[in-house]
UniProtKB/TrEMBL annotation:
Residues 653-751 form the FAD-binding FR-type domain. InterPro entries: Dihydroorotate_DH_Fe-S-bd, DPD_II, FAD-bd_FR_type, FAD/NAD-bd_sf, FAD/NAD-binding_dom, FNR_nucleotide-bd, Helical_ferredxn, OxRdtase_FAD/NAD-bd. PROSITE patterns: FAD_FR. This is Sulfide dehydrogenase (Flavoprotein) subunit SudA /sulfide dehydrogenase (Flavoprotein) subunit SudB. It holds the Pfam family Fer4_20. Coiled coil: none annotated. GO terms for molecular function: iron-sulfur cluster binding; oxidoreductase activity.
Amino acid sequence: MSSENTISSTQEGTSQSVLHRYLKAGSALENTRAQLEALEQTEPVETYHRQMELLGRRLQNDPRVFRDMFIADGTEAVAWEFRQEELGAEFTHVLWELLLRDDDASRVLMRFIWDVPLKLKRKFIRALDRHLSQRYPVFLGLSDNWPAENAIPPYIRDPQLRARDFELVNQGYLGYMNVGYSAREVELLVWLEALRDKQCEEKPCEVGLAEPGRPEPKGGCPVKIHIPQMLSLLGTGRFRQAMELIQSCNPLPNVTGRVCPQELQCQGVCTHQKRPIEIGQLEWYLPQRDKLFAGGGAEDSLPPSDPWLQAVKPPIAVVGSGPAGLINAYLLAAEGFPVTVFEAFHALGGVLRYGIPEFRLPNELINDVVDKITLLGGRFVTNFVVGKTATLEDLKNAGFWKIFVGTGAGLPRFMNVPGEHLLNVMSANEFLTRVNLMQGAREGYETPLPEIRGKRVMVIGGGNTAMDAARTALRLGGDVTIVYRRTESEMPARVEELRHAQEEGIVLKVLRAPCEFIGDDKTHFVRQAMLDVMALGDPDASGRRSPAATGEKEPMAVDLVIMALGNSPNPIIKDAEPDLHTTRWGTVELGRGSQQTSLDGVYSGGDASRGGSTAINAAGDGQAAAREILGDMNLSAGDIRSRVSLAGSYSKLGAAPKTILEKIELAEGIVEFIVHAPHIARAARAGQFVRVLPWANGELIPLTLADWDAEKGTLCLVVQGLGSSSMAINRMQVGDAFAGIAGPLGRPSVLHAYGTGETVVFTAGGVGLPPVYPIMREHLRAGNHVTLIAGFRNDSLLFWTRGDERIGKLQQRYPGLLDVIYTSNDGSYGVKGFVTGPLEELLKANRQGSGREIAEVVTIGPPLMMRAVCDLTRTYGVKTVASLNSIMVDATGMCGACMVPVNIDGRLVRKHACIDGPEIDGHLIDWDKFLPRFNQFSAQEQASKRRHGFA
């Protein structure tokens, strides 16, 4: 047979087979269709179709029904596994992978495990320890004494690495992402921490524990975060809802969660006494997670429109942008109130920014809170010192309905022991302000720091500020020792901060207290501290055992001494408000159970009313004050609109740029600026000064007010280019704006009315003439005779001396009341010599009974000149005032840098030029101890000049 015939026969057989199968299938289909049609008429099948139609509609309306059917089956399978003696390796891996999926099923599993009894939770933790610890080292050993004594800790950077930079030390649970964990894996670590919760009904972490004899419960949360509810939400996988819960109570969780002393608050009363739940870490994890996954979510809180435009609620003024002020501003802004926050510094955050280093609290987190308030319509006015730029009454007159005062307690304490005047003996406030607020350690910033690298640094104190100062000095290269007069167990610092300091290599020297500092006779820098050896006696009022000197002493070599001894309330507002009641400690007095002060409509909280306390207590006070304000509104719609308009204009004017309107070259290197600063011009008085931040990364410079015009809203500042900053300022042009001007600061000159035969003598050296000018003018207005002795180095530095300039115009305006004597060092103008020459002639004439009697002398100018004047007048017994403002840093008393040693009744005490001055009795000043302070940063200044090409 041929191959073609074979193929043909095969094809024919195949066709017949296919046809046969088709016919058979068709017959079967007909039979089946007949059966289906018959069955369709039966009741069971009709019921089935109705049920399927109903299920279809349900699935269309709620697709989760179908999902839940399968989840229910899966959960039952998981429950069966949990009923076994132990969880097997395969099941544990599968379960963990399901949890990692971050879907509805995984959240059901999280809720299932949250709800099972503790013994089953322990079984789950044992399985993680046994079967997953190779993949996750944090699980190794976790099951030992879990949950009471064991937990997964937050991620802490290695001490050897972190001690060399300012990056965050405790990076929380999200820090595990730096070592390869995914965001979902970190979320599960947080969930595992929440699983430790006992779900106790008493809620001690939230409400505290009542103790007999105590008016307030022990521990608990000052801002009333619903901690058990937060843990429940975390334990059941509802992270976003947990975040919303926290933010409804506290807009600062990213801040308070890091700096709150949890061991004394929520965690201090946790029922897990040996290993409390990491409540603080969970608190600040949530906003960080929110930023990671959802960009922060601040937009969710946006009001329908700007509350300043709505004008349906009256405006609120918040004084101070620390934790108390920020939470108060946020809560009121969220309720639709137009809010303006007035801050004395150029940067917001108060103690959170100037006092806490970035390795503990990154500045970006403070900025996040500020951004939230801004999104709610809140406004901020920086470089505005309430009590100086405006009083509380001024703010009320500007339309603000209620005022919250959260100015903190920033006046540093010192020891009052011999040698405190030496160079490189400073407060922790000054040191931290230079580093944190003024960024002195960063490249390109102008604020000088002490030389620290390789130097011996002593930090005195045992609180959190001492830890911050010590750890900051360590990161700047210092060899740091903390000296504390009690033992380690009495130190009030947070346990974590002390432990971190010791891990980083900081030495702790306890039962020691400095009794004297000894310096180099030539350089005047501190070189040694004498320490009293202490012993603990009976408990004091705080319950801690009191230290007492044993009589034994020991020396300690030092190059830099930083005092972290706590702070007192700043007196600026108190001094400006005579009707504001304060306690004997200087804190604002509050009504019982209220944040209300003695002034109507004025509330306070935080350190301003507590004294030195904590950020979380301050936040709680701000929250409590907000609640009081919310419940106290009874104004007409018209009154509200009027107030909002007034306060809005006032706020905008305060925030307006401090623009240079006019620049006048007075003499070689001396420039006069006319600057727009309406609020300061309105408040300025003779003898006061301003604090100038020329540009964002510049240093704070005090400049005495040469003149002002309240109607035009301008200031007159005269700058002599001596250092790199002043030289750079003199390069600024009309139209440029200073980064900030704060003031007027200091106490105004005290004027007395003198007789016709008396005169007030002013000695002005160089650019001492501009600050002398307004004080002299006030004496002339008061009818006092004035004698001006103005000295210049040579005639190239003359200014304001012609008849058509300021001094000449004063002579024309007050004929017979102003005598003027000019001197020059080289005799090129006026009398040859120094201002002391003509002054001595006047004094001698007085002694001989001729000429006008000198009622007082006011001296302003170079420090050596002021000292010479004071030494001269002392021998004649003539009252002499020296104006001192050139050594300040923040100029509000917060840093303590402008320390002036004075002798009162044979005892050396401290005054501060910005708080007690700038005018101080020149005969009380210990000039030998004071003058070297002007040269403390001379080496750094020379380096800055070289860096900027001014050397």
